[in-house]
Each structure stands twice: as C-alpha cells, then as structure tokens.
Design a protein that fits this description.
The protein is mostly helical. It is 70% helix and 0% strand. It is built from ten helices and no strands. It has helices at residues 2-10, 12-52, 88-92, 107-126, 130-152, 157-172, 179-204, 211-224, 229-251, 262-286. Helix 5 (130-152) runs antiparallel to helix 6, helix 7 (179-204) runs antiparallel to helix 8 and helix 9 crosses helix 10 (262-286). The longest helix has 41 residues, at 12-52.
Length: 287
Amino acid sequence: MTDFFVFLNSNPAVLYSGTFVLGLLIGSFLNVVIHRTPLILEQTWKQQCHEMLEMAAPIEDTITLSKPNSTCPHCGHAIKPWENIPVISYLMLRGKCSNCSNAISVRYPLVEIATALLSLFIIAYFGASYLSLALLFFTWTLISLTMIDADTQLLPDSMTLPLLWLGLIVNYYEMIVPLGSALWGAIWGYLALWLVYWGFKLLTGKEGMGYGDFKLLAALGAWLGWQMLPVIILLSSVVGAVIGISMIAIQGKDKSIPIPFGPYLAIAGWIALIWGRDITSLWLGTL
C-alpha cells in the first residue's frame, strides 16, 4: 500500500483526477444516505413501538441504503443507471425527470460537487496516505450529518458514534493528536454541550439542543483533540450567526423556528482540521 501511495504522490494528475471522480461517486452515494437514513430510523422506531405495545406491525417494504431502487418522487419512474451518473446525468436531463419532466432538486449535483471538491482539497493538502483515507471518511460523514440535520434536526447515532470511535482509533496511532488528547477531547466535547444543555434547560425550561450535538462534538474532539474544542465552539458560533442572519435576511426565515446546530459544528470541525492551529496561533498572538 505504501508503494501505491508513493506512485500516486509522484503522479499528481492521476491522484487529483482519480480523487475528483471518486468524490463525485461518493457524493452520489451520500445523496442516498442523506435521503434514506431518516426513513430507516423512522421505520425502526415504528417497529420498536409496535413491539413494545405488542401490536402487529403493518407490512411495509423494508428500506435500506440499497433497497428499493431509486425512483422519481413525483411519478415513481425507476431511475436507470445512465440517469444516475453524478452531475452529468443532471445536466443531460436538464434537471428534469425523463418520464414526467418534473424538476430534480439541484441539491443532488451540488452535494456531489461539494463532496468531490472537499475530497480533492484533503488529498491536495495531506497527500495520498493512510491519514488522508481516514480524513476522507471524516469529511464524507460530516457532509452527510450536515444535510441530515438540516433536513430533519437529527444526528443519527449510527453515524456519530462510529465517527467518534474511528477518531480514537486513528489517534491511537497518533495520526493527528496523541491518544490522551483525543480521549479527553471526546470526554470534554460531550460534557461541554451537555452542561450548556442542562444550564439552558434549568434557566428557561426549554431544550436548546439535542443529544446528537453532544455526540458530534465528542467525535470532533476525538479526531482533533481537546485543545481544538474552544476553536470549534467559537467557529460554530460564528458560522451559525452568519448563516442564521443570512437566512433571516434573504429567505425571511421565522426567528422562532429552531435552527439545527449540527451543521455549524460539522463545518467548524472541518475548518478546524485544516486551519485550527493557524487560528489558535492568531488568537493567542492577538491576546
């Protein structure tokens, strides 16, 4: 594997083009993950409720990431393989279903392009290595969590907990930070928002965030270490303020509607991965 990394790093054209294409393909898969994961969760919760109440569960088609096949949400047209090529199919179909001509959300190609560009950035910044492979998974998971939370205000345990454990495994080999820093990053990441949650609830009687936010910050701490937690929290607040104000000003979003915090944490965590040390140095230098 090491020889393969050497070959890729010595042939940047192959490395970058291959990464971009891989990113597009992964982005297409992430669209499926983003759409179906909440449906799978809902299906599981319904089954558990019926079991608890000792009721016969209604017979429904089981939803997984691979089944059923993708269809048009408007007419049920089964999407053919040539209609599912990342970005290209969207452009060829002019953003419309080939059967009913209803518009296809532009979010699908945007997720594919974003995944490809962020993947390319990771490889360009870190080169081809085991660390880069881990950071690609880190990036892809954050993209999925960002979109799922934005849609449903859910941060599934099936994604946040594996992300946390993988961060600890990566740092067992000290790829990013020492294991001790990663362990305390996970602990303090969870406790930091847990304390904020209960403090806010005791003062107002309302829940200001969900437990998924605790687990996501714990996962970011496991990857980046406890030293990076203040930077992530600061950045997430800045990102949240900018996006929130923009949504209110541009879209006229109701101020009383809850805004999920997970996307801001995910964006802040990715920024901290790349520029966290520079931000910390600048911050300390200013102080």
